[in-house]
Amino acid sequence: MPDIDDASISRFYENVPFSRKEFFLKGSSSYDWGMKNRLARIFRPSDGRTVMLAIDHGYFQGPVRGLERVDLNIVPLLPQVDALMLTRGMLRTTVPAMAQNPIVLRASGGPSILKDLSNEEIAVNIEDAARLNVSAVAVQVYIGGEYETKTIHSLTKLVDAGLKFGIPVLGVTAVGRDMTRDAKYFRLACRMCAELGAQFVKTYYVPQDFGTVVASCPVPIIVAGGKKVEEFEALKMVEQAMEEGAAGVDMGRNVFQSEKPRTMLDALNHIVHDGWTADQAMEFFRSSSEGSLTSTDARDE
Ligand code: R5P
Hints:
Structural class: alpha/beta
CATH class of the domain at 42-228: Alpha Beta
Strand order of the largest sheet: 1-2-3-6-7-8-9-10
Distance between the termini: 51 Å
Bound molecules: ribose-5-phosphate
Number of helices: 13
Strand content: 5-15%
Number of strands: 10
Radius of gyration: 21 Å
CATH topology of the domain at 42-228: TIM Barrel
């Protein structure tokens, strides 16, 4: 017998307005549901922030220190990261499909460190990104580089493809050896990425006027770590970037080249998500012990 549709029952809540929650991320309110849902996997809806681990360095540098054995050195860290940035080769071969982390897929490449890095092209078809169930694709743009226009076209092509599938694009502002790293340069590079359609941008922190880079970019900005420095220096950089409006970090070498990568990730999480200062995080880092990984550890996790 069919249910009786009894309008007298109060389950209709006629006097309660339909919920219209604004999407929590900067500049992202007008996207389609799939794209919002993917972004909400990368950035925690509770605070709009993310701790991403970047391990894509091999796509032009080969097995850098700390990434010699991703199965042993990185896979055990996955429970501590909000998102993982890597290539499809490393994803398919090495990351267990049971992993719950959203994936930000490196989608540009070409030259090695032996050549002009700005001569990159799109290196992943968007259908393959969808097949891999990734949450975003990442493309390097070399503003001011020899092949600037080519890398910008890679970004715009990926944005067009990503919009068809609801896959966001992360614009990564690369800096060549000869490029100035100041707020003026990063305002230009980040704003160009956003204007040309990137749904979020990764850039470098600069001590002078980083807040102007964030303020003039209408989408979330996350900061890269850069080359390995002392832990306190890296933590201080993250503290300052967060204070000046960054939406998180996408850090590589300062995590996986640290003597205590797990503890470093914990420290980063405390700064990004819990509002700790770099001093607090450093005290935590110093006082925490961390055993070295073995192949058994990695298989067990
Ligand atoms: C460049 O190699 C990649 O885009 C890295 O993902 C990026 O540089 C972040 O890694 P790191 O913190 O080591 O600079």
